[in-house]
């Protein structure tokens, strides 16, 4: 029984199909099918129910549980051997959401790479749900993001809660105020992130309670671009204090008195943190310390 065959089985179950597993592992579908056939012969039991829908047999469910533990232990061993062979050399693949990716992480990464010159770090800038999916696929090691939709295999541990402000053009009438209420946004054009963003949904729920539907909407998928559209007085944007920590010229950040939303930022993993190598643990610690010290 080969480790790569066990990994193939585990990837099929995690991804939900033979086709997706073939894409993730970069194998042909006949190769995937052949390995599962060989694995079932080695195990001496059928692991998948035969039919259109992917479903594990009782033996398959038990094998999946044990296979996951085996692969996790092998990954720990592999990281340990790599540390022994190469010192602190290696590759960390991290997923990060905005604004952390642009405003917080670069300074953290600079210090980390100064101390670990033989380490390489790849950064994927994505929303929380995309980070969660990539973590499940194994294309990133961990993520720093907001809370994603719940997935059984992934764990979200918040370490910071942000606050929300409104950013307006310095030519906007609201720019004369030092703070506002949601009611002051009646008839304004609100620039929002995509409709499936959990924070946007919460903001709109608060707006509905305060002013009903008496506001206009514009959707702008790049959160870090909002301030540039605001500067041109196209609309106003409600966003985190971290995102507004370095406002551009021509804009003003104003606190909202009656908006009690505290968006979480946290560590997203699909394994216990102690399984990470020492360098990855140190990078995680530096990120958390940066937030807890003064994210703004």
From TrEMBL:
Entry keywords, A to Z: DNA-binding, Transcription, Transcription regulation
A GO cellular component entry from the record: cytosol
Sequence ranges assigned to domain HTH lysR-type in this UniProt record: 1-57
InterPro entries xref list: HTH-type_LysR_regulators, LysR_HTH_N, LysR_subst-bd, WH-like_DNA-bd_sf, WH_DNA-bd_sf
Molecular-function annotations in GO: DNA binding; DNA-binding transcription factor activity
A Pfam family per the record: HTH_1
Top-rank lineage group of the source organism: Bacteria
CDD domains (alphabetical): PBP2_LTTR_substrate (cd05466)
Family: Belongs to the LysR transcriptional regulatory family.
The protein, known as: Transcriptional activator of the tcy operon
Organism, scientific name: Bacillus amyloliquefaciens (strain ATCC 23350 / DSM 7 / BCRC 11601 / CCUG 28519 / NBRC 15535 / NRRL B-14393 / F)
């Amino acid at each position: 029984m080969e480790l790569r065959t066990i990994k193939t089985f585990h990837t099929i179950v995690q991804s939900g199909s033979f086709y997706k597993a073939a894409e993730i592992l970069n194998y042909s579908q006949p190769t995937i099918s052949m390995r599962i056939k060989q694995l079932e012969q080695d195990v001496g039991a059928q692991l998948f129910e035969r039919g259109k829908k992917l479903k594990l047999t009782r033996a398959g469910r038990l094998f999946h549980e044990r296979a996951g533990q085996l692969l996790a232990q092998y990954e720990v061993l592999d990281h340990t051997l790599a540390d022994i062979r190469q010192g602190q050399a290696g590759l960390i693949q991290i997923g990060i959401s905005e604004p952390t990716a642009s405003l917080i992480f670069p300074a953290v990464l600079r210090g980390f790479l100064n101390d670990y010159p033989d380490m390489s770090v790849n950064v994927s800038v994505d929303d929380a749900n995309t980070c969660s999916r990539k973590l499940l696929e194994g294309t990133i090691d961990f993520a720093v993001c907001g809370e994603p939709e719940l997935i059984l295999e992934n764990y979200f541990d918040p370490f910071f809660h942000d606050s929300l402000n409104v950013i307006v053009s310095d030519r906007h009438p609201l720019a004369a105020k030092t703070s506002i209420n949601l009611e002051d946004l009646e008839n304004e054009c609100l620039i929002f992130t995509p409709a499936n963003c959990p924070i946007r949904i919460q903001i709109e729920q608060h707006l509905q309670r305060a002013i009903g539907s008496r506001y206009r909407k514009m959707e702008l998928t790049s959160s870090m671009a909002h301030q540039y559209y605001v500067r041109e007085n196209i609309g106003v944007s409600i966003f985190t204090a971290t995102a507004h920590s370095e406002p551009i010229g021509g804009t003003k950040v104003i606190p909202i008195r009656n908006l009690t939303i505290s968006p979480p930022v946290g560590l997203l993993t699909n394994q216990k943190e102690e399984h990470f190598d020492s360098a990855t643990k140190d990078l995680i610690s530096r990120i958390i310390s940066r937030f807890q010290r003064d994210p703004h």
